[in-house]
Amino acid sequence: MKQKIILSALLLALIGCGKQSQKDIYRPLRLTDDIVLKTTPVKNQGSSPLCWVYAMLATIETEHLQQGDSVHLSPDYVARMYLTEQATHRLYTQGGKSDRPITMRGMPGMLINLIETYGLQHFDAYHRPDDADYNMLCRRIEKSLSTPAKDSPQSRLADISLLLDKGLGYPPRQVFMLGAVYTPLEFAHSVCRSDEYEALTSFTHHPFGQRFALEVPDNYYHNTFLNVPIDTMMARIVRALRQGHPVCWEGDISEPGFSFEHGTATLHNEKEKVSQKHRQYSFEAHKTTDDHCMEITGLAHDSRGRLFFRCKNSWGNDNPYNGFMYLSENYIRLKTIAVFLPAE
Description:
alpha+beta
């Protein structure tokens, strides 16, 4: 039976994070799952660039599911706290003026910082209406901050809170979970410790074995990452998955071989193993950038025995793998900016 190979170069409008694929070089792959970790349902981040929130929360959720516990966490609660924090900082430090606009972009490590400070809500208790638009909300907050006013920062923050209530809904003050009542902060501390995850990266412009603040635009908190050789990073990812732990992945999706439509990501040349030197060149030439985040939930192999990483995306489930994607080992080696995995 002949398989139809789709040759038309359909451009996939990537939702929220990353760049558009320049062309479609899809080749059908016969993939067999080797490890599949449990996950909550695939979500859709819509037009927002909140992949870093969705991916890190998905990683925390899977960690609990693997341990026999069940949590379903609210990306919108974290997003609201992030917007509020930015507005507060602007009003108290610069009177509302700034060269950097209000943004929803970030990195997965920032999610840990935010929930450690502001807490969490359960998904069913707080999620945005279907017509909510984070980009529009950012513009409205920006306009409110930029308008000259004689009111105190507290009064202006109250106005911004009303904007958020209208756009996202009123946030509950408590979390009800399995018959217990928590504050959002207590709930966050019950599902994720501040030291539970370790951030790894792999670049040669800093010494291996040391931590450094990764030089990417979305590292607004100047979080630091442990720098290790690429082979070490890959081994840590595989070991975590084999031990039943998910991994949060941040990387580049600008390669023509990255196709959500087909659910796979491969490099043009899959025969040659990506080296540390090749990886460094791609980063320094800005060919590897921090476009997108996903949760790595398992391992697979193709008909040739090549390793693939099964990833939970946050663009809905309209692809052959119900919203999941398979990234080749070489793709992960070359296009990874950082990973977040349980600390050893």
